[in-house]
Amino acid sequence: MNTGAFVCSCAGTCDIDLEAAREGIDDVDVAASSRLLCGDGLEGMEHVVEEHELDQLIVTCPEASAQERIREAATERGLHPDAVEFVDQRESAGWVHGESEATAKTARLVNAANAGLENESVGRSLTHEAGERVAVVGDPETAAGLAEGADVTLIADGRDFADTEYDLEDVTVERGRVVEVEGSFGEFELRVRSRVTDDCISCMECVREAPDGKATRHPVDLDPDVDDESLPELCPTDAIELEGAERTLEADQVVYPEATDSARGGRLGFYTAPITPAKVSAIERQLGGVTKPEFLDLEMDVCAAGASSQAGCNECVEACPHGAVERARIDEVEFREELCQNCGACTSSCPTGATRLREPSNERLAREVETLLVPDEVERSWLPGRSGSGIDDAVVAFVCSERAEDALREYGRLAAAGRADVEYPPILPVRVNCTDTVGEAHAMHALAAGADGVAIVGCGGSCLHSGPDPKAELVERLERATTDLGLGKRVEFFAPDPDEPEAFVDSLTAFVDGLEPTPVPAGEHEAEGGIDDPDRENPPFDSHGWTLESVRAILAHVEPEREVIRGLKDFGVVDVTDACTLTPTCSNLCPTDALRRIETGLEFNHERCVNCELCEEGCMEDAITVEQGLDLSLLPENRDEEDPAWETVFEGSMLECRSCGTEFTSERSAERIKGEVGDLVSGMAPQAEGSIFDYCSECRSKLLYDRSGE
User: Fold this and answer.
1) Half-sphere CA count of 90, side-chain side, radius 13 A
2) What is the CA radius of gyration of the chain?
3) Phi and psi dihedrals of 413, rounded to 5?
4) Residue 533 to residues 279, 536, 555, 588: CA-CA distances in angstroms?
5) pTM tops 0.85
6) pLDDT tens sequence across 55-82
7) Which of 53, 56, 150, 282 is most deeply packed, by most CB within 10 A?
8) Strand ranges, E, within 240-337
């Protein structure tokens, strides 16, 4: 594939040295620049495309109308519309940084985009069927608008539609107030409470006698505040229940303008205010079902959710904000991919790689981070480096593609318009679907690649994905881990508010100014995304393996303050007490084969353990406990053993049957049972050689059966 990069200064409004930016772009077939690419520069771009036979373009242009002109020019030269990738050199660079920083950052953004395209996933889609039932709560306008193509039920929610201006002839109107909405797309259940039942014949007796404003005519219902016990006596059909009657209504989609963000929970097919034409169009498109991109790669063979009716790892279930992951059985989780909203919460929390985000994949994010952090060459003193001009503090910023990205763009526009003094440190942005995509593996990899710091830039506030103070727990754990590694605190979360650029500038500046230069050199680490263990079947760039690889890269340049690195949730240390009887339960349950039983006891492989706690849960003797943390002394490179990956955590031997030679229990277990009941069975098999407890169950049964000598 022939790739060309084009840098534009937006008619000179971006403070960028175009020549220097071209020189800083690597690994493309040609780099060109223009003062106004979408105008006078289009003809020159077309000439370059033809001359170099380009089939992939990376263009610095954030303006939608200009992007369309550039894309049209590219397609006229035979390129596919999707073969043009755009980079924002304006709002996030030339409008908020000085020339040296903006130039350096623009070159790096182009390089990162190129690296990301090389690891772009091929698109896939899935289909989920549903019906055409739409429940609309208290909104007659939307109900009437949808009625032509959908089976619409309008739930009054305390409102009176007797004099409504909207045509509800094809709408089923239901009385009552919504108490709760459960379920998901295609399977919603709305619990509704009313004080008038379906036996009502709309005779208006109760409406006439009820206090003003406390009864509705269409549909007939009474306000919850009404406590007049004489009203039920007026009803000829006994349809009034002052204590309230509940019923359940079913729907495939729900329109509930007054529902809160937390009540919606990000569920597909659940719409809250404002009900825009775009949302109505989405509802209509989803009638009958949806076809949507397939966001996840699933490899459930390596899932640590459980085994043999024992529950293990539950990270993805707890992390998913959209109800797309559920524990179908005690030892198994199930993904409902039609409900997936592509936030990446399950993928960043999964330690084994059983669930992985397709786009951007972890490998793509890794390559973009590594490319952003490549240091300048000697002859390019302008390019970001710690010894010259440009970007002196290399801070990788994982930026949410929703509100956070919009806020940063607004800051740039405010600065360009002269309406705010917005100039902040030149963080190196990596676009993610949501900050939930970011886990400990992403942050540790950025530090291993030479970042001075990691900024997680998300929505905050009422964000449906993360909720208030969304990444506090992650940041706290990472700060503990980086401190234990000797790096100090290098991770922070930011939630930029479009209306308060000064607050973001101040907090980000304080964070960057507080960073010491990292001892980890940039440009040396290229992640493979795993552990050098041929018997480990986890896919590359799983959280556990990728994190451990990054920690090892960091350890080559630091002196840890502790032997056990705290804060990394995907690592566990197993402790086994003397209560162990060497039953194979733990080794059979372990999803990563981190435990194995040998002739002399039980061994543990810390390098493989993902802290799922299945062994602790399944141990019948309660002999196993698992503590979170990465113990450096247990890693094979720090152990002088014949098989350094394995540590003996319990010493003991299996007992062979005196008769048939089969191993049937541990010596410790046999001794314990003998001590408890030995006196009771003494002499029951006088012909046995030694104790009856030296025989397996089958041979013991034979001895007891033949004790009469027959």
Assistant:
1) 22
2) 33
3) -65, -40
4) 49, 5, 19, 20
5) no
6) 999 999 999 999 999 999 999 999 998 8
7) 150
8) 240-251, 253-255, 270-271, 289-293, 296-298, 306-307, 310-311, 325-329, 332-335
